[in-house]
Amino acid sequence: MGTPAAIVWDSALLGYDLGGDHPFNPVRLDLAVRLARSLGVLDGVDLLPPEPAADRDIERIHDPGYLTAVQSAPTAGWDIGHGLGTADNPVFDHMHEVSSLVVGGSLLAAARIAAGEVARAVNIAGGLHHAMRDHAAGFCVYNDCAVAISWLLDNGFDRVAYIDVDVHHGDGVQAAFYTDPRVLTVSLHQHPMTLWPGTGYPREVGADGAEGSAVNIPLPPATHDAAWLRAFHAIVPSVLAEFRPQVLVTQCGVDTHREDPLADLSLSVDGHLAIFRALRDLAERYAGGRWLVLGGGGYELVRVVPRSWAHLLATVLDRDVEPNTPLPADWVAHTSRLAPRVPLPTSMTDGVDPGFARWDGTEDEQVDSAIRAVRNAVFPLHGLDPDDPRD
């Protein structure tokens, strides 16, 4: 079986550990990779270990003074500012080195695509989309997504589309490219009136000279698979078709799940699988098959993230796992020892049909008001008719 994708992984990436009972626990990565291995998804695949990104590459997005603060934080012993040392972003040992390794993983994935060695590449340890130019935010120290996009722009690509399906707004990536018409940022997220970071309204469409380069799709709490997919398909393919990207970069956070403790959307693992397959199809249709895949949020560490990201790896590799596939006995045994009080699912499905009704211009569902608001804000900027469901 061939391997049409590069998979970036090394256990050293588990060192991005914010400690204690912090929700951003690297066990989710370990369990996802273990599950993919147990399912045979990674059979015959050479996993690519990353190298730490050079400071000059991190400085594509971050101020040098911020790098200095991150480097000195573990030994500073005083208030270092820059969003570091907070409850969300506690200081941890080797913070700069491990954060640089995450960035290096996304750069390695981008480089394999740019060199034409593969059409797809994935770094599930990446997706740290909240980090800003001079400060950490939302569990994110360095913004590997934005660094990789910046690198792609300097290495053969003139039009990069970024799609963020995390439950939180992809604010750091949007901020990095808000004035750059070469980058289209699309974020589907829980409505900013109901969830941190409080940004990502439809009216945020890009700065002067880059109008239409930012697309924000805020969804009401309790949005389920069918409604999420209805919104996605009513907006994203049309905008991509007009933008004509040369490569698609996606942040594939899975904190949209109904069991996630930090947010209020109601997707299932089956919905996540439908999203990943839709992203794969869009990369094939609009970006010449070039698809850079990054991880992101997801805080139901045992029941959700491993299954959803095992599906993600399988989707990237064209080794799709049937939803009814039982969880492998060795993975169940390992995970049961690790989390003995957590009732484990039995298969790769939540038993949900993610089928949806496509938007037809009417307002029959709660999500339709969000669809209408986004189309009205963005579609005219791309020469599209917001009232025509064919656009």
Folded structure, characterized:
This protein is 35% helix and 9% strand. It is α/β, with parallel strands linked by helices and 391 residues long. The chain has a single domain, classed as Arginase, Chain A (3-Layer(aba) Sandwich). It has a seven-stranded parallel beta sheet with strand order 1-2-7-6-3-4-5, with helices on both faces. Pathway: Ketone degradation; acetoin degradation. This is Acetoin utilization protein AcuC. It comes from Gandjariella thermophila.
Brief overview:
Helices cover about 35% and strands about 10% of the residues. The chain is built from 11 helices and 7 strands. It starts with a strand and ends in a 13-residue tail after the last helix.
Features of the shown structure:
alpha/beta; 391 residues; globular; 35% helix; Arginase, Chain A
